[in-house]
Amino acid sequence: MSADVRGLVDDLLDGHQRALARTITKIENREPGYRELVSALYEHTGDAEVVGVTGSPGAGKSTLVDKLTETYRDRGHTVGVIAVDPSSPYTGGAVLGDRIRMASNVGDMDVFFRSMSARGNLGGISTATADAVKALDAFGKDKVIVETVGAGQNEIDIVRTADTVAVLVPPDSGDEVQTLKAGILEIGDVFVVNKADLSGSDRTVQELKEMIQLAGDTGSPASGGGHHGPDQHALGDAGGDTGDTGAGAGAEDDGWTPSVVETVATDATGMDDLTDALAEHREYMTRSGRLDEKARTRTAEEIRLLLREDASGLLERELDRRGGIDALVESVRAGETDPYAIADDVVSPIEECLDERE
């Protein structure tokens, strides 16, 4: 490990905010040595509770994250917040709109806030975000909140990063609630009807409860062996319907029924109910063993992702050695070869090397 990386790691572990900021900058920009840096932090991670907050634009995510952070601080927790903002089409950087709506905790040294660019990721989470979460975890933050872009149906990558996912739904959503079952319904551990002081909130809460119950009765992916665990409908028999703060966990093998919470983030109404619901899900995940299971899945995905990145780099080098992609395209256009043949030719040296090692 280089002396610069070692010094940065030591400063971060000693609690220096400037070192944390430099680390996340290095990670986000994928600067030389960032992988060595993350690798050194890895053994110091695993203690933070990671909460993902997603939902449609205009649902009030940033305001809710601000008040949720304030509530956690009132309970004595240290907090790190990563707000994944839309990418600038010109610079690739974050638009940074969330900073404007997260003003309650300015000056609190036990709160670290960072905007990061989605870098065009449809899933709302860039690859660097998960590494930034590790940095906050190693720094010693008790809670790490990741707020996603809020692009709609593609907001599913947060499941790979967060232990608990809260999905915000504005009141009187109508058709939007119906579309949730196509994707986002399956990732939410807690559903938050924010701006609950507006008309239509009661109807939205009822629609969400009905859809959650229907998902359990029909054995959809939201209730089966996917994100929420097996046989979600069994919880309805054991624990009743889903209340405003919703008791989530029944028997250890019954799965988790998503909670529905009403909040008014602008004045912090419902924040205690929300933090209680998040804590209930965390307790269920720990007791059932699903937290460890999720950590294993996350690690497996991370290994595969890094291997894909490295393999892609090797293949790009092989393409350059063969004259570059443009030359290969021209050979296809000239009828001299085809894409499948080129792919086989490019991969064959790597396959030969692997065969020799067996």
Any overview of this molecule?
With about 350 residues, the chain is of the alpha/beta class. The chain folds into two domains: about 45-290, P-loop containing nucleotide triphosphate hydrolases (Rossmann fold, 3-Layer(aba) Sandwich), CATH 3.40.50; about 300-355, no CATH class. The protein contains 13 helices and seven strands. The protein has helices spanning about 5-15, 15-30, 35-40, 60-75, 125-140, 160, 175-180, 200-220, 235-240, 270-290, 290-320, 325-335, 340-355, and strands at about 50-55, 80-85, 110-115, 145, 165-170, 190-195, 260. A seven-stranded parallel sheet has the order 3-2-4-1-5-6-7, with helices on both faces. Helix 1 crosses helix 2 (about 15-30) and helix 1 packs across helix 3 (about 35-40). It is globular. The two termini are about 30 Å apart. The model is unreliable at about 90-100, about 120-125, about 220-225 and about 230-255 (pLDDT under 50).
